[in-house]
Amino acid sequence: MKQKKALSLSRLMVVLVSGVAAVTALISIFVFTTLYTAALRSNAATGSEQSVTQAANAIANYTADTNKLLRRIIGELNSSDDSETLSATFATMVQMRDDLASIGVYRQDGSLIACYADNRRRKASVASLDLTGMEADSTGVYITPPHVQSLYMDYYPWVVSVARPAELTRYGGVNAYVTVDLQFSTIAGYMDDVGIGQRGYSFIIDNAGRLVYHPQQQLIYSGLKSEDTLPLAALPDGVHADGSLIRVIKSLPQGDWRIVGVSYLDELVAQPRQAALGRILAVVPVVLLILLAISVLVSRLVSRPIHGLVDEMRRFEQDAAQFVYQPVSGTDEINVLSGSFEHMVVRIQNLMAEVKSEEETLRKTELKALQAQINPHFLYNTLDSIQWMCEVGRTDEAVQMVSALARLFRISISRGADLIPIRRELEHAESYLIIQKFRYKDQFSYRFDVDESVLDCLCSKITLQPIIENAILHGFGELVEDGEIVISAKADSADVVLTVTDNGIGMDEAQCHAILSHDQSEPGGIGIKNVADRIRIYFGAPYGLSIESEPDRGTRVTIRLPQTGREEP
Question: 15: part of which helix (H) or strand (E)?
Fold first, then answer.
């Protein structure tokens, strides 16, 4: 199964740090934008309210001063009997104040009694004072809407009239209205000075919603612009946010005027927010790049020793027995892991050596036990044959069998050695063949094809005998013609190849596999498997035993051994 590739620690750290930084930046930008927008809205509302309040206070102070002026004029009218002196006094007042257009006295019905200006000729016919539908303020003062004054020849200023009722003794205690006509440009100047952004503006309405002053009043009168003032009359004083607009309404303490300031949220809020957000977005990528570089550096410092430790573990997996650990240094945690892994490697290698030694010892013990099981059986059959030869008088043949048996067991014992020269192994095989040929009444023949250069090389003892025995018992058992066994020993590069070939009935592939896989159901299989196991134990995995066989075409068993270990004299 293909192992799924996992994400490395360094990449994981970079991804996590980058992800956390990006998420933190996004959350910070969102929170900042939200809070900053709320702060801008609050500042815009506060700034607009302060501007309108400032204008309202200025106009309120101006009307309060005008009220004082009216009281003074009323006082002058009631205290002076000299018309010329009174006219001179009022003319001086008008002359000293640029905002004062004229002073007038009107009857209750609005007809003019007298008017005073700076050396101007009054018209013969003038308009009357019209206060119809107007309400006085708490001080009893009336303030008219702006209008064109038409009292004097060639003089038509845009004024607002401030009227105050009074009982004038000069005119026989008549109830009259004393007025001052103020240049409306002064009040307009207060309104025009109100700064609420680049597009914001302020205007004046009365309690009925009628427009008193507007900076674009001419456009409104000409129908090129509209200002819906009626809904504003119903709103209380304060800040009113409506969509993209902020409206601030402030009533004057004198008269029925109300100051309205209009500001635009996109100018006071959206534009500063966009500018701040643009600066943040310009800085955030730089910060993210710095964080990314730092995370890459930190990940390398942390992951490099971990990668080294992982590489050492992989090398240990590939060749645990020959592995030599190179300690990895790093942080305290890495040093602890490295020391623990080194201790584990030494412990596992010791355990592997112990297990291997125990397995080899156990296997050799088992093989010796199997060998001990085979030898008595063979000895019994051979002695039974010798007894039969003696009984029938074939003493010479019995003597040969006894001699071959003695040589067979002498080589088998070999002073306790497990490895013997190939020369002695061939002698052992020949002794066995001599005995078996007597037993089977010359039903087979044998011959040796030996390269003398390999006779002194070592092999495990009793290697050929189980194979020869298998050929005799199973290869020739149902053979009609005489059998033949050929035993060869040849050099093959740095190896020695021993072969045992017979012309017996042969085997199929399944039978060959059963013999080599220790199939207990096959008689004689224990012997061949025994040989294969001993070769692998003594000489290693590359060496061993193979079987080539076909039914009715014979069998060839090949044994490959290293050219090693010459017997000492």
Answer: helix 9-79
